[in-house]
Structures are given as structure tokens and as C-alpha cells.
Amino acid sequence: MKEFLQTKKNEMLLLLERLVNIDSGSSHKEGIDEVGGILKELYEEMGFSVEVHEESYNGNNLVITYGENPSIIAVAHMDTVFRVGTAKDRPFTIVGDLAYGPGVIDMKASQVALLYAMKALKEGNPQALESMQIVLNGDEEIGSDTSRPLIEKYAEGKKYALIMEPARKDGSLVTARRGVGRYSVYVKGKAAHSGIEPQNGISAIEELAHKIIKLHALANHEEGISVSAGLIEGGESVNTIAPTAAAHVDVRIKFAEQAEIIDGKIREICSTSDVPKTSITLEGGINRPPMVKNQQTIELLEIIKETGAESGIEITDVSTGGGSDASFTSAMGIPTIDGLGPVGGDAHSEKEYLEIPSLVERTNLLAELIARLSARE
């Protein structure tokens, strides 16, 4: 299969260029669906059935199946974090052994790798395709709200979950992730002229300041808990007592049992006002459970290490604070490994890159892994 993939390297890069040059930020449904349409056609050409799950505002989600009783699920997202127009401003480019462009590593290179792993299996081990089911989702970068139920539905009963986020910069796979929560705190006060009648105003910003200090105090980095108001807004003008204010808060947890505790504390803090006559509305919650490196994960990792060794790849693994769809399958008790895409780095930035030699190497690793897991089944 590796020889087959080596002959397809230029073809893979051409597809990658095509995908990268389509804006598919999470809020740009049209672009995500264009990417999905291209991939749908390519999978169908190989004999896969593709079921499109329509979404009104987010990108559509695709469920791609070859056999009748698949035992392996692979998950890859089609959305990026970039605004419309980014692909035109800095399109796909190659400099030496690196490729650049919006979403090139997170995770359009993974889309190419997953597709061509299926092509390699069809060429070298077609029976293994019977084990595969793939979910391509369009809202991972904003929490997978529409796709989570779909992922969990099709992950039910699977023996293995392979998540196609990119490998780390050093090539490591991901075996643990922190859980993620998103909260928004909205405060209402009363406007007044700050020079003429400040006593008649009620400052929403003052109330929000109290809340942010209390929320930040919930952080316990030794226990793997972080709470951070990363975005705040409020007020109407510098000389007006602020009638409204809002904070958007990121929460990370290390263990599943921390979710209920931290959620309860956040709700308690926001249940009463520090500034009299202000009102508070809290929205959000913990939307991704932690991915824990348990015995099932370790056993699957050992299989990947054996597979990598046969191809001359030393497999290492890491824990990371970022969230992904791996959390959902891991929480369901399914052996899950993340970071199975190609190697690159600086995701979500203008410097985002793919190490081109890893495209064929990691695609072959994925194909060989699926063949091995399929044979075990």
C-alpha cells in the first residue's frame, strides 16, 4: 500500500490544494458544504455510501459507510477557524518540504489522508474496508453541537475510534485531552450619564468585574482545572454608566467527575448579584468530557506502535489541553486514539503548516492500522 500511496503523492497534494483554497470556517456553511460535496463524490467513486445530514446553519455532516457491520469509526472535521476571504489572501503554497494555507493541517491534510487510506486499502486489502465507517462533521471548531449526537449514534457498538486531528509537531499521537466547557455571562444594569447623574446608574461592568474575579478563582492548575474569561464586552460610551456587559468563559477539566462540581460552582457564583439591582443570565455548560488515557487506550496505542515499527515509525503519545471529538467516543468507553493525521503545526494561525513527507507516511500508517484492526475483528 505504501508503494501505491507514493505514486499518488502529487494527486494527494492537488486535492489538498483544492480543499485548502475553499474557505470553510465554522460559520461559512456554503464553504463547508462545498468541501463536503467534493469528498462525498470521491468516496462514492470508491463504492462507499454517503448519507448527508442536512443542517440549517452549520455545515452538513456526512456519514460514510462501506460494509454492513462496521467495527471501526473514523471522525474528521471539515470546518476551520478562518474567516471568509482567508483562502484568497493566503492560498495554498509549498515552500520546500512544507505546505501552508488556512486549515492545511487542521485538518484538511487529514481529510486527504483518510480518503487515500481508503484508496490504499481498496488497492491492497479491500476486505478491511468492510470494517470502516466515517463521520465527517462541519462544526468541530465550535463545539460539535450538531454533530455530537451523530458521532455518538454511529460510534455505539464500535470496537475502535480513530480521530483524525493532526499529529503533534513532533509526530506524537494524542491519548488524553482535557474536558472543555463554554459559558457566557450576561449582565444588565441601568444607563446614566457619568458626569451629570452617576448616582442614577447601575454599572453592569462593575458587576461583571466581580463575577470574573470569582470565576477565575475557581482555577486549580494542580488539579487540571482552568477557568478563564477570554472575551468581554460591555458599555455604550466612556461617559455612560454601562447598562450591559458580557463575558465569555473557557473552562478546562482533567477528570469527568470535575464537570459537575465546577459547573455547580459557576452557577452558584452567577446566581446572585454583587452590585445591587443588576441582573445576571448564565448560558452554556461543559460540552466536551475529558479524554482519559485508560487501559483500552493503552492497548490500542500498543497496536499502533507495532504497526508503526513495521514501517520504521517510532510512535510516541502526549496529553493535550485542547478539545476534540475524541472526547465523545472515549467517554463512551470505546478505545480511542487521536492525532492520527499528518504531522504539522501552528494550527489556527497564519503560520499553519504541513510537513509534506508525513502526508504519505501517516496515510500509510493509517491504512496499515485499519488493516490490522480489521484482521483482529
TrEMBL record:
Species per Swiss-Prot/TrEMBL record: Sporosarcina highlanderae
Q: Which domain of life is it from?
A: Bacteria
Which terms are listed as keywords in the entry?
A: Hydrolase, Metal-binding
Hydrolase: is it a keyword of this entry? yes
In Swiss-Prot or TrEMBL terms, this protein is called: M20 family metallopeptidase
Please list the residue ranges annotated as the Peptidase M20 dimerisation domain.
Answer: 175-273
